[in-house]
Write a structure and sequence with these properties.
By secondary structure, the protein is α/β, with parallel strands linked by helices. The protein has a domain at 78-333: Aspartate Aminotransferase, domain 2 (3-Layer(aba) Sandwich). It has helices spanning 44-56, 78-84, 87-90, 102-119, 131-148, 166-173, 191-197, 220-229, 250-253, 321-357, 378-384, 388-396, 425-444, 446-450, 463-468, and strands at residues 123-125, 156-160, 177-181, 202-207, 233-237, 257-259, 280-282, 294-298, 301-305, 373-376, 404-405, 414-417. Helix 2 (78-84) runs antiparallel to helix 10 (321-357), helix 4 (102-119) packs parallel to helix 10 and helix 5 crosses helix 6. This is glycine dehydrogenase (aminomethyl-transferring).
């Protein structure tokens, strides 16, 4: 399609501005541009067609099946958007006097209460802007806790080999060194390796449960006990909480701090650069170190409180407020029973797809999975040359978004499938039929699969060149 600048014709316009009703004030020369701002000149119909064409090239959950595992790309209910768009929420300013935004603070306090119930935590901060930002914040809390006790020798964070890549990155950014522990043959944490890794220098453990191969670690209570007995704290990566909402709580598993991807599990918009929200919950032992601007109820009404040993602010003001509102609406709409059913349906849908696909492709782990499962196409690659990436590209031609590719790293030629809870059996069957057909076609006509996609706006771009030398703006002659 053409760029908007390629549609531009000098002198064409769609601006219909009212006459100026105030005295004109010329721009001081010092602030004036040296040359005119280069803007496209198009008619309104051209502008409308341009954005409509752009929208048609974007694939979202409203367009079709979106099984993007590890990210919980779930449906965003319209009622969330209506609530977040109420003028009383959108028309406020972060510097307004507290007494004029009591309803907004009440919403924050209510959201904290509900999320603490879901996670088994005691307090919650909404400042972090995304999941990885939440990891960073949670680790700062752990660091502040050990420092307050004079236990400054605890400099190492233990991370399983199946962890999200942001886990070791966040630990390193906080000044910790990272110790990897392997998974056992069952896909869960190797307990002997964990026992060997902990010691007086252990600050904590970062763990996702269910883990990234879709398994709920059966030894979770033993895992967190090993770390606690060594004097460390346990951090819960909430990326996979969608599998266990109102079924199992991180706080009951022995975790001391957790981040939640509100832009995943709690149905708020995700992708396209945000906005996100990586709310962080903590046990009481970490409450003294929470970031600033913690909303709380008092005798005089709702106020912002700063923790006595606060780590400070990790973001300006109070977090992405309208994202928090969407999550609050989701929790209020579903209630405890509804959230539990959502998790149960996510697990059911995942296992249904796993069982249907298993005869045609090896699954990375045996037995029942949780909300996601991982296929390994290593054998298909050896037999036909068709890779996981090829199969993912072929899925585009079938009208569905591909799943996560090549993750977790411990699974060769991995495709991670997460259908979420809102997909019907008919949709799941159609997706399974398409995937099975692709796998079979790879054996009879591998070249055809390796050349996909055939029906998308672009085929296979040079991804390395796009990453290293991106063209981010129009080049004017």
């Amino acid at each position: 399609m053409k760029l908007i600048f390629e549609r531009s014709v000098p002198g064409r316009s769609s601006a219909l501005l009212p006459a100026c009703d105030v005295p004109e004030c010329p721009m001081p020369e010092d602030f004036a541009r040296r040359q005119a701002l280069h803007l496209p000149e198009v008619a309104e119909i051209d502008l409308s067609r341009h954005y409509t064409e752009l929208a048609g090239q974007v694939f979202g959950v409203n367009d079709g099946f979106y099984p993007l595992g590890s990210c919980t790309m779930k449906y965003n209910p319209a009622v969330n958007e209506e609530i977040a768009a109420l003028p009383g929420f959108t028309g406020v300013h972060p510097l307004q006097p507290i007494h004029t935004v009591q309803g907004c603070l009440e919403a924050l306090v209510t959201a904290e209460k509900l999320l603490c119930q879901v996670t088994g935590m005691d307090v919650m901060t909404f400042q972090p802007a995304a999941g990885a930002h939440g990891e960073f914040t949670g680790l700062l809390l752990i660091k502040a806790y050990h420092k307050s006790r004079g236990d400054t020798g605890r400099t190492r964070i233990i991370v399983p080999d199946s962890a999200h890549g942001t886990n070791p990155a966040s630990a390193a950014m906080c000044g910790f060194s990272v110790v990897n522990v392997p998974s056992g043959p069952d896909g869960c944490v190797d307990l002997d390796a964990l026992r060997a890794a902990v010691g007086p220098d252990t600050a904590g453990l970062m763990l996702t449960n269910p883990n990234t191969v879709g398994l709920f670690d059966k030894n979770i209570l033993e895992i967190t006990k090993i770390v606690h007995d060594a004097g460390g704290l346990n951090y819960y990566d909430g990326a996979n909480l969608n599998a266990v909402m109102e079924v199992a709580r991180p706080g009951d598993m022995g975790f001391d701090v957790v981040h939640l991807n509100l832009h995943k599990t709690f149905s708020t918009p995700h992708g396209g650069g945000g906005p996100g929200s990586g709310a962080v919950g903590a046990k009481d032992i970490l409450a003294p170190f929470l970031p600033r601007f913690h909303a709380a109820a008092s005798a005089e009404g709702y106020v912002f409180e700063d923790a006595p040993q606060s780590i400070g602010s990790v973001k300006e003001f109070y977090g992405n407020f309208l994202v928090i509102l969407r999550a609050l609406c989701y929790m209020r709409t579903l209630g405890e029973a509804g959230m539990r059913e959502a998790s149960q349906m996510a697990v059911l849908n995942s296992n249904y797809m796993r069982v249907r696909i298993a005869p045609h492709c090896r699954i990375a782990t045996d037995g029942v999975c949780m909300h996601e499962f991982v296929m390994t196409l290593s054998e298909l690659k050896k037999e036909t040359g068709v890779t996981a990436k090829d199969v993912a590209k072929a899925m585009l031609d079938e009208g569905m978004h591909p799943p996560t590719m090549y993750f977790p790293l411990i699974v060769e030629e991995a495709l991670m499938v997460e259908p979420t809870e809102t997909e019907s059996k008919e949709t799941l069957d159609a997706a399974c039929d398409a995937i099975i057909a692709i796998l079979e076609r790879a054996k009879t006509d591998p070249a055809a699969v390796r050349s996909t996609p055939h029906n998308t706006p672009i085929g296979r771009p040079d991804e390395v060149a796009a990453a290293r030398s991106p063209k981010l703006r129009c080049e004017f002659s």
